[in-house]
Design brief:
CATH topology of the largest domain: Ribosomal Protein S5, domain 2
Strand order of the largest sheet: 4-1-3-14-17-18
Structural class: alpha+beta
Number of domains: 2
Number of strands: 18
Largest sheet: 6 strands, mixed
Shape: globular
Distance between the termini: 85 Å
CATH class of the largest domain: Alpha Beta
Length: about 325
C-alpha cells in the first residue's frame, strides 16, 4: 500500500510538472543539436611568453600575444544568435572544406601548417639573433589535396618513392610530372602513422600545367642552440601565429626586452627569411584583441591592414595598428617606439 501511494505521488508530480520537463528537454536539444553550420566570432589572446622556453632566456616585462578566431559548431540556439549578433558569422559546413576534403583532413592540414610555421619562426628569429640552428631529417609530406577525385593520397602522407624510385625532392617531382602525359597514373609509396601504403594519382592539366592535385610541404626537424621548446594546445591549428612566435623567440634570445612592459598582439604567417604573410579572420582577431586591451596589433601589410584600419574607424577601436611586411618591421617599430 505504501509503495502504491509513493508511485501515485511520483506520477502526480510528473503530471503537474510535465510542461516544465518538456521545456527542459527542448532547451537541452536546442543547445546541443549540431546543425550543418559553424560560427566564427571574435576570439581573444593567447600569451606566447608562457609557451616558449629557451635556455637562459631573457626575461620580458611585457607580453607577446597571439590573436585568434573563435569557431564553434552551430546549435539551433547559437544559429539564432548568429543571425542577430553582427560580430558572429555563419559558415556552411561544406564551405569549410577544400575540393571535397573532409573537415578532419582540413584540420590535419592546418595542424601540419602550425608545425611548419613554428619551424619557420625559429629559423627567422635565430638568424636575426645570430644564434645557431641546424636543419635535419626533412620529410616531404602531402599537405593539401586540390583534387580528391584524381588521387587517393592522404594529408600527412610522407613520400618515400615515386614510380618505384626514391623520392629526390619537390623540384625533381614537378619536372617529372611535366614529362608525363595527361591521364598517366603515378604510383606513390608513402608512410603514414608508421604504416607503408601504395597510393596513386592521375596526371591532369590545370592552368596550362600538368599536375596531380596535391601540394607538398617540407616538414623538418630543427635543432637550436640555445634550445627552444614551444608548447601548443591540441586544438590550435594554422600558421597565422608565426609572426608573434618569431617575435617572442627573438626577444627571449636578446637582451633588449622590446616589449617595454606593453601587451603586444598580432597575427600573420612567417617564412624562414622573415617575410610576413596575410591571414584570414582579421575582423574577429581585431575585435578580440581590443576586448583584451592590447596596446599594439601587428597585422600584415596590404588587404589585412586596410581591413583593420577600416574596422578601427568604424568601431572607434582604441589600439595602435601597425602594418608589417617582415619581422624586421615589427622589431624596428618596437625598438623605436
Amino acid at each position: 500500500m505504501k509503495k502504491k501511494n509513493k508511485d501515485n505521488k511520483i506520477l502526480s508530480f510528473l503530471n503537474e510538472n510535465k510542461y516544465f520537463f518538456i521545456s527542459v528537454v527542448i532547451i537541452f536539444v536546442l543547445g546541443i543539436y549540431k546543425l550543418p553550420y559553424y560560427i566564427d566570432m571574435p576570439g581573444g589572446l593567447i600569451k606566447v611568453n608562457n609557451r616558449i622556453s629557451i635556455t637562459e632566456e631573457n626575461k620580458l616585462e611585457g607580453s607577446y600575444n597571439l590573436a585568434y578566431v573563435s569557431e564553434v559548431p552551430a546549435t539551433p540556439i547559437l544559429y539564432v544568435l548568429a543571425k542577430i549578433l553582427p560580430s558572429w558569422d555563419l559558415l556552411k559546413k561544406e564551405d569549410m572544406t577544400y575540393n571535397n576534403m573532409t573537415i578532419e583532413e582540413m584540420n590535419e592540414f592546418d595542424r601540419l601548417l602550425l608545425k611548419i610555421g613554428e619551424n619557420q619562426a625559429k629559423l627567422a628569429a635565430y638568424t636575426r639573433a645570430n644564434k645557431t640552428t641546424t636543419v635535419s631529417d626533412t620529410k616531404i609530406k602531402v599537405g593539401l589535396i586540390e583534387n580528391t577525385k584524381t588521387t587517393d593520397l592522404k594529408v600527412n602522407d610522407i613520400i618515400l618513392k615515386v614510380d618505384g624510385m626514391d623520392f629526390t625532392g619537390v623540384d625533381d617531382f614537378k619536372e617529372m610530372i611535366q614529362n608525363k602525359n595527361v591521364g598517366d597514373i603515378i604510383t606513390f609509396e608513402v608512410l603514414n602513422k608508421e604504416d607503408v601504403y601504395t597510393r596513386t594519382a592521375k596526371v591532369y592539366e590545370a592552368e596550362e600545367k600538368k599536375v596531380v592535385g596535391i601540394y607538398l610541404f617540407e616538414d623538418q626537424s630543427i635543432t637550436t642552440n640555445p634550445e627552444c621548446n614551444i608548447k601548443t594546445n591540441s586544438k590550435e591549428m594554422g600558421p597565422s601565429g608565426g609572426l608573434m612566435t618569431a617575435l617572442t623567440i627573438y626577444d627571449k634570445l636578446t637582451k633588449e626586452d622590446l616589449t617595454k612592459g606593453r601587451k603586444i598582439s598580432g597575427t600573420g604567417t612567417i617564412d624562414a627569411d622573415g617575410t610576413v604573410g596575410e591571414i584570414g579572420g582579421v575582423k574577429y582577431k581585431l575585435a578580440g584583441v581590443v576586448k583584451k586591451h592590447a596596446d599594439i596589433f601587428f597585422v600584415p601589410k596590404g588587404e589585412n591592414y586596410n581591413e583593420a584600419i577600416k574596422l578601427q574607424k568604424k568601431h572607434n577601436y582604441k589600439i595602435k595598428i601597425v602594418a608589417v611586411e617582415t619581422i624586421d618591421d615589427a622589431i624596428n617599430y618596437l625598438r623605436n617606439n
